[in-house]
Amino acid sequence: MSSLPAVSSSNLPRVVITGVGLTAPNGNNLPEYRQALLEGKSGVQPYEIRYFGKTLAGICDFDATRYQKRKDLRRGTRAGSISIYCANEALKDSGINWEAVDKSRVGVYVGTTEHGNVETETEIYEVSKQGYNLDFWTHHHNPRTVANNPAGEVTLSLKITGPAYAIGAACAAGNMGVIHATQMLQLGEVDLAFGGGVSESIHTFGIFAGFKQQGALACHEDPTKASRPFDKARNGIVVAEGGCLYTLERLDDALKRGAKIYGEIAGWHVNSDASDYVLPNSERQRECMRAAVKRAGMQPGDIDIVNTHATSTPSGDEMEAAAVNAVFGDFDGVHVNNTKSYIGHAMGAAGALELAGNLPSFEDGIVHPTINIDELDPACAVRGLVINQPKQTQGVKTIMNMSFGMLGINSALIVKKFEN
């Protein structure tokens, strides 16, 4: 059987990013977030969660009431609130005349790692204080916990009547939201799409307890240095919340309205390890990267920035470093960086947020670094890794964004600088 993609991207409509809406632990819009990445500003801070106690987390601080009433906040979810904020910000950033848009031709594709744990844990805690009398169980529980909730809350906010659903893809979900939005535009199913990912993971005891039991939860006396991918002293993941949604359009539509274009979707690939529940597979990661490059009609040396998934776990970073070196290690012009070193692991939002942090490189040619590398682990010595200080280049035209997740899902998304 052929390993080539079934359909060449060149035979399909071109899709571009025309708006960015985000909230991250170190910024609530793209300019603010980008500045934090260039200045080495971390968003990780001390955090305490019920039953677990004191830990560290990447915590967002956005104005949820900008697009929601307090009644909506009480009825909805944190993930839904993040999604609403990001979608409205992306829409505003895009400059689209929303009143003139046919809302039945708009799609919402929100990647999530998990959804519903926060609300269920909270409700159980609340009824426990009432002797488990279920008269105190909220009637809002079911709509809060269904998997499509984050996307559904966006449709309620913006009165969208087109297809809207969440995409469960573990920590590859942010990439998958963008990929799926692109595919739906290319198929003509929608004319405008919101795609990306969100996470409310810091609000659930289970996430922290699970990583703690796996020996995969980071600790450090200085919270801002806890997330340290590729560093010899790294000791685990910092859980983070956040979100990033993009407005995506077919190129012809974007040009017709004179839209600002952040970048063009050039290629992607998604595959599965089929080897372990949680341990990554370096060989499958290599296959995923190579297939994405091939789909984009490029060679590995054509990629200017590779944004790594590396979560700061000992084995995971080594596996990915080996994969990146195998695919890109022969090329001088490939720059490698990591965003989790600033914000922690935003789970379903990670891929979308990490892509956003690199998009401005198309304009300024600067590659933001991986911070918190005091002593590079020799097993993670990735060629082209930008460490601790931004790097000015001769120009950036292509970005590969990599996101992997539990149950062995791998994704690689390539975005290129728009050139008509």
| DSSP strand tally | 14
* Helix-strand sequence: EHEEHHEHHHEHEHEHEHEHEHHHEEEE
Principal-axis shape equals globular
Whole-number average pLDDT?
96
Instruction: Report helical residue fraction.
Output: 25-40%
Q: In the CATH classification, which architecture of the largest domain applies? A: 3-Layer(aba) Sandwich
Strand order of the largest sheet: 5-4-6-7-1-8-14-13-9-10
- Which percent band covers the strand fraction? 15-25%
**Level-1 CATH class name of the largest domain:** Alpha Beta
Instruction: Tell me the span between the first and last alpha carbons.
Output: 35 Å
Radius of gyration: 20 Å
| CATH homologous superfamily (4th level) name of the largest domain | Thiolase/Chalcone synthase
Key words describing this protein structure:
disordered N terminus; Peroxisomal Thiolase, Chain A, domain 1; 420 residues; alpha/beta; 10-stranded mixed beta sheet; 2 domains; 14 helices
Question: TL;DR?
Answer:
By secondary structure, this protein is an alpha/beta fold. The chain has 14 helices and 14 strands. It has 2 domains: 15-256, Peroxisomal Thiolase, Chain A, domain 1 (3-Layer(aba) Sandwich); 268-415, Thiolase/Chalcone synthase (Peroxisomal Thiolase, Chain A, domain 1), CATH 3.40.47.10.
Characterization of the model:
The strands form three sheets. A ten-stranded mixed β-sheet has the order 5-4-6-7-1-8-14-13-9-10, with helices on both faces. Helix 7 (173-186) crosses helix 13. The two termini are 35 Å apart. The longest helix is centred in the N-terminal third of the chain and has 17 residues, at 78-94. It has helices spanning 30-39, 70-75, 78-94, 117-128, 141-145, 149-158, 173-186, 205-213, 251-256, 282-295, 314-328, 340-343, 350-358, 361-364, and strands at residues 15-23, 44-49, 53-58, 106-112, 164-168, 192-199, 242-250, 263-272, 305-308, 335-338, 366-367, 391-392, 398-405, 409-416. The chain is built from 14 helices and 14 strands. Residues 1-7 have low confidence and may be disordered. It has two domains: 15-256, Thiolase/Chalcone synthase (Peroxisomal Thiolase, Chain A, domain 1); 268-415, Thiolase/Chalcone synthase (Peroxisomal Thiolase, Chain A, domain 1), CATH 3.40.47.10. Helix content is 32%, strand content 21%. It is globular, with a radius of gyration of 20 Å. It has 420 residues and is α/β, with parallel strands linked by helices.
